[in-house]
Amino acid sequence: MSTAIKRFPKNESRLYMAYMYVAFISLFIGATMGLVQTLERAGAITMPSFISYYQVLTVHGIILALVMTTFFIFGFMLSSQSKTTGGYNNTERNLSWLSFVVMLAGVIMASVMVFLNEATVLFTFYAPLQAHVIFYIGMALVIVGSWINGFVIFKRHARFRKENPGERTPLLSYMAVITMLMWQIASIGVAVTVVGQMIPWALGWVDSIDVLLSRTLFWYFGHPLVYFWLLPAYMMWYAVMPKIIGGKIFSDSLARFTFVLLLLFSIPVGFHHQLTEPGIPEFWKYIQVVLTMVVVVPSMMTAFSMFATFESRGRELGAKGMFGWLKKMPWKDARFLAPFVGMVFFIPGGAGGIINASNQMNQVVHNTIWVTGHFHLTVATVVILTFFGITYWLIPHLTGRAFTPVMNRLAIVQTVLWTVGMTIMSTAMHWQGLLGGPRRSAYSDYLGNADTAAWGSYQVAQAVGGSILFVGMIVMIIIFINLAFFAPKGETEYPLGEVHSLEAPAPKVFENWPLWIGLTLALVLFAYTIPLIDIIQSKPPGAQGFKLW
Predict the structure, then answer these.
(1) What pTM did the predictor assign?
(2) 304 included as an active-site residue
(3) Could you report the per-residue pLDDT of 242-261, keeping only the tens digit for each?
(4) What is the pLDDT of residue 501?
(5) Is 403 part of the annotated catalytic residue set?
(6) Burial 344-360 (b: 16+ CB within 10 A, else e)
(7) Is residue 270 included in any domain, yes or no?
(8) How many domains does the structure of the chain reveal?
(9) Which residue among 163, 317, 342, 459 has its CA within the 20 to 30 Å range from the CA of 368?
(10) Which entry of 375, 470, 480, 510 is annotated as an active-site residue?
(11) Is 440 designated active site?
(12) Residue 269 forms beta bridges with which residues?
């Protein structure tokens, strides 16, 4: 028997909308800073003397990659778990409000320091760049706040199992648990370096810190962060998209197995971000590159599952041939179009990720603007377009409004704008990176292996693409405001995919949490214990490893 609730209580809807308000305010600020960056690099504008390019870069990276994504993810994941498990109790709701307040306080503290130019440390805020101690305390609060929400998700899933013995747990709740397990385990690394190294350093308690140790702990967290962005998009693809196209979930068990594999292999792979760094033995870099490549397996499983879903639905509607299903998809429905375009962008995005993680090919693109182009393909296109697709039904569902045909057409225009703008900008970034264009640099006259005219064209292309993206962002904000405040009152479905009635129940081993957590920790210990011991023992003279007192 289904435990899904039809409508959220008003106090829950307000909770999820609070997360969404922060997410879309962050989108506006972050995308505006992105436009300023591209225009500055192209020479179209000059920053005023009181604002630095790197200050703008820091705002753009942190507020989009950390703030916008995190708040949106929690708004979506909490709502999906509540919807499918029968709702939260008062304790769980209050804890989630506490999480929101703690995270928002941290965001405000960190943001103020960045805007005051006291924390211009880029998106990757590891040493040797140093920020004001308030920035680090703010980032620590964001992490701690997120852990509170993780506890809420774990608690509700466990309560469902207790209240419904022997029943299959809801797929979206299961996926939320996996996502938060990965996040909790991975974010320990950045919490340790922030609290144990950076705060004492910023307070002047120590004169220096072990930079290699700091970077290693950051990237232990930094790569799983990519999957923290991606797994909620997978949740939409697996469990919501089938309902939008009128089909069924291809395989509940395959979806759960995919998430288990992503939990196991998304964390112990941070060294592939440090392939050019000394101080880490090549053997351990090789091991983590191998573990990185294993993540290709669940990604391919996802591609198979999704396109099998599309084909199955297409054949139900009379499609013939290998690609006949394409004609049967609801292309005029923005709830489908935006996430589908995101899926398509995952093909070049994933290929670029394989290049970044490959030892030999990484030498060509390391610390070039190729990497920036890659991130814009993955998080800024695959993930964000999927999040936009979620917005089109989640916000009106929460506010009791209708996603009107006018807003649907505007959302299709938004998807086209985002697709065109990102294609132009990210392609120019990739090509410029192959020619040696530096990452994180305001110096736009570096020629690398290109002539002046070609180099200038890459900068102009990035500015053009960025400008189109900015227009797309404005359109998205208009849609959000309409759905939140002005759309006509109505009933908007929370689309939940259904499992085929003939599919066997998922194997009970998928709910064996001690097993999966134990295997994950074993892989982490295998990949990191010896290298970390070596890094700590070999730290430079005078460098402080940790200072927790």
Answers:
(1) 0.95
(2) no
(3) 999 999 999 999 999 999 99
(4) 73
(5) no
(6) ebbebbbebbebbbbee
(7) yes
(8) 1
(9) 342
(10) 375
(11) yes
(12) none
